[in-house]
Amino acid sequence: MTGGNELEGYNLDMISYNDTYGQSFFKNFTKLEMETVWPEVYGNTRSLSWIQSSDSHGYSYYNPNTGTWLNRYGNVATEYPSPYFGPAELYNLETVQAFNHSVLPASRFMVEFGIWSYDSLESYQTILPDADIHPKNPIIIQRCYDDGPNTVNILDNAVATYYAYPNRSDPLVQFDQMSWTTQIYQAEHIKNQIESYRRSVGLPENNLGQLFWQLNAPWTTLSLNSIEYTERWKVLQYVAGQVFHRVAVSSWIEPTNTTFNLWVVSDSWEPVSGTVTATWMTWAGDILNTTEYPFTLSELNSTALDERTGWSQILPNSAKSSDAVLLLNLTAHSNVSTFMNQNFLVPHYLSNARLVDPGLKLSKVEGRTWRVEASWGVAAYVWLSHPIGVTGYFDQNAVFLAKGETRDFKFTVLKDTTDGAWEASVRVRSMWDNWEI
After folding, report:
1. Residue 432 CA to its chain's centroid (Å)
2. Which of 12, 207, 337, 373 stands the most exposed, by the fewest C-beta atoms within 10 Å?
3. Single pTM value for the model
4. Catalytic residue among 6, 254, 270, 423
5. Quick check: helix, strand or coil at residue 284?
6. How confident is the model over 125-170, as pLDDT tens digits?
7. What is the β-pairing status of strands 406-416 and 399-401?
């Protein structure tokens, strides 16, 4: 529990920003938190850990029997050069650094991190006529409360850098693909950080939590939210569910030195053991190599399974980074539970990938369940979407499918104003659909 959001840093800054009242502001902040708020919290419950600000340097002394504690202030870089004291936040907004793990902080707890994306076409269609829906429309930019023009440019650059940049002749379809691709960037950006912070549960900082920002937004807009104002789930909301599995596998290639890393992490309270099956494929679906990595983890721990540097060591059978994709499948067991998790790695970004048409086939199975098959190749980011008129979510989405793989997607309805007619308008796409067919 915290006494406020980001207050410690702001009040420390006031000392240098305001010679006249800076010290007074800071003393009043300390008095409020230590002599007013904290005694009330401690008087009601002693089961909560407490700090006076969401991101802080923590405390240097705490006695849970008396509630006495001494806060730690100062310049963390010079006086407390350690990641082990308190929680931190980070907004890594530079496109070039988006997937660079070396810029991510070590921390006991990450209380805030995020990046923007557009809301979906369907949400914008509830407030604007189709003719007004395009990325650089001043109306859309003005609805963005996070520096709209600059945010639009950052996202446009990110999509061009890391993904198959949409190139559709129909302006509405172009916006649909563009907004969806910015959501993929947001999801991968946050996924990259969640996986990094989760892995550090097994490192000296012993990170035990991550809270990305933010869940929702006050109106349909271009923002940090994972659920839109219309209650429609963005890609991030689905991907967060994937990476927060109790026992999960992750991999990445560090761009600064082209080093491949493969890790597993467990939040289980019991020891777990299992296997990660790593399969390299071409985008056409041909298997290049399969490797199995057995592992055993103690409770709340992580470990590295593989590390290789240089493309010749990373990619099997002289494959090219533009025509290779890694699919990861984890199965693990504890004394009381079974865990399964999937993940993927595109070695040199989707912008450089030689994608093929995966030949997606969509069919309705039963009830509110749809089946998707990738019949011609590997499908990147299989995405099912529902039309306006129904509110709800799929049990999974934004997944990779191998050639010949089928998967069922079940939809949970929260509200339906179409008397079931919406079911005929469910559609599927993948990254391949960013291009004109």
Report:
1. 22
2. 337
3. 0.94
4. 6
5. coil
6. 999 999 999 988 999 999 998 888 999 999 999 999 999 999 999 9
7. unpaired
